[in-house]
Specification:
By secondary structure, this protein is mainly beta. Helices cover about 10% and strands about 50% of the residues. Bound molecules: 2-acetamido-2-deoxy-beta-D-glucopyranose (2 copies). One 2-acetamido-2-deoxy-beta-D-glucopyranose binds next to strand 27.
Length: about 400
């Protein structure tokens, strides 16, 4: 709406200035229903979306901004679909006012690339915004992620719901994402991203339904969002730097995680700030996890102003990550962790070990700082404690008392 008003104002200004060049109007609207989308929740609207996208993306050169409009009060059924760039207009605005749902039968996926449901690639200046709802129809995948019977010895993973790949200057705002088959929103190889005001909802028991994953991306801000799923609320993986996560309410879920890093190779992560976040009954709070083996580093990471409500593992560095707990790799190489600050943190825990800094026995963590950290048991009167392995740094104003950091 704001956008449309802006266009009108711009038109009026041109008129006021006595401009005769009406063609200067540089925004075009591409309504998916004008391209044949039905929005009845039953008809496959992907071909219509593809046509509208092509028109928006290949708009004539006087169009600086294309708006792909997904109108309100309708539900559009989409099969797996890729919205590919590069596009001609310098900005593409996807207005999601209506709802989008995924195929309700796995067989609708036969012949499709199974990794992702809705994918945007190489679209610079992309904004996806609106108060629509994106429903991935996750329950059909959660029990068995394969289509049909899996070949013996193979595993399948369910598709990610919404993926942005190589989209610089991305904005994602206002949407509700529910029941993804796997991760809800993935940002990969993007630079300059702002994600805000999302609601991401899936059951606590749904497997691998991370809220937002960030991989190989730089200059990413995620703020003012509510995330409650069956896995990490936000996960930041290798190749990511200058990431700011703020004002997130997380739970249920597995908290906000950096990693798992070092799964076969070098991983680099730096300049990460997580601030003003609340974790409610999550399995982990804030953590950095890495597999044994691997190389690279995770450094300049700070967690500030975090509140915990009955969290299981509030503060964790875990360099022994091995989710299956079987055939775990053991190795003397490790991702080097340094310059990590936990400050202004308070709340309650369901477990007694509330601070667990477990660094590699061969590669120490250095400059680990805890300041003003107060965590008590969710059970009144119960004692809590912290532990560490091979960690250097300092702790000031910490409860429970935390004396295991080496100088
Ligand atoms: C902190 O986060 C909460 C949501 O949990 C939000 O309401 C509040 O405005 C945020 N405060 C600041 C200073 O950003
Ligand atoms: C701390 O974390 C490590 C690594 O996950 C784990 O092996 C250990 O049992 C934990 N310590 C406690 C006391 O819970």
């Amino acid at each position: 709406m704001v956008q449309l008003v802006w266009v009108l104002v711009a038109c009026m200004m041109y008129t006021a200035m006595g401009s005769t060049r009406i063609s200067l109007v540089s925004t075009s609207i591409f309504d998916v229903t004008k391209y044949g989308a039905k929005g009845n929740g039953k008809t496959d609207d992907s071909p219509a979306f593809m046509k509208a996208w092509k028109a928006a993306c290949e708009a004539p050169s006087n169009v600086r901004r294309s708006i792909l409009l997904i109108p309100a009060r309708r539900t559009f059924l989409l099969r797996p679909i890729s919205f590919n760039g590069p596009c001609k207009p310098s900005s593409i605005y996807v207005q999601v006012s209506g709802n989008i749902i995924g195929p309700t039968k796995k067989t609708d996926w036969i012949g499709s690339h199974i990794d992702t449901w809705l994918e945007f690639t190489r679209v610079n200046g992309l904004t996806v915004s609106g108060n629509g709802r994106i429903d991935g129809q996750g329950p059909i995948w959660w029990e068995n992620a394969c289509i049909g019977t899996p070949t013996p010895g193979t595993t399948c993973h369910a598709p990610a719901a919404l993926m942005f790949k190589r989209c610089n200057g991305l904005r994602l705002n206002g949407l509700t994402h529910i029941n993804s088959p796997r991760v809800h929103v993935t940002i990969t190889a993007c630079n300059g991203v702002i994600i805000s005001n999302l609601r991401i909802i899936a059951p606590e028991t749904s497997p691998n339904t991370d809220g937002i994953n960030i991989a190989s991306s730089t200059n990413v801000k995620i703020r003012d969002s509510i995330i409650g799923t069956g896995d990490d609320c936000v996960a930041i993986s290798g190749g990511s730097s200058n990431i700011m996560i703020s004002s997130i309410v997380c739970g249920p879920g597995h908290g906000i995680s950096i990693g798992a890093l070092g799964n076969g190779g070098a991983d680099v992560v730096e300049n990460i700030e997580v601030r003003n976040c609340t974790m409610i009954k999550t399995l982990a709070g804030v953590r950095i996890k890495s597999w044994q083996g691997g190389s690279g580093y995770a450094r300049k990471i700070s967690f500030k102003g975090i509140k915990f409500d009955s969290v299981y593992n509030p503060i964790m560095i875990d360099q022994y990550y091995c989710p299956t707990q079987t055939n775990c790799r053991t190795s003397t190489s490790a991702v080097k962790i340094s310059d990590v600050t936990f400050s202004g943190i308070m709340g309650t825990s369901r477990m007694d070990n509330v601070i667990n800094i477990s660094c590699s026995r061969s590669v120490a963590c250095t400059n680990i700082v805890l300041d003003s950290v107060y965590i008590s048991s969710a059970t009144p009167g119960r004692k809590v404690f912290g532990t560490c392995i091979n960690a250097h740094g300092r702790a000031t104003h910490v409860k429970p008392s935390f004396n295991c950091l080496k100088r």
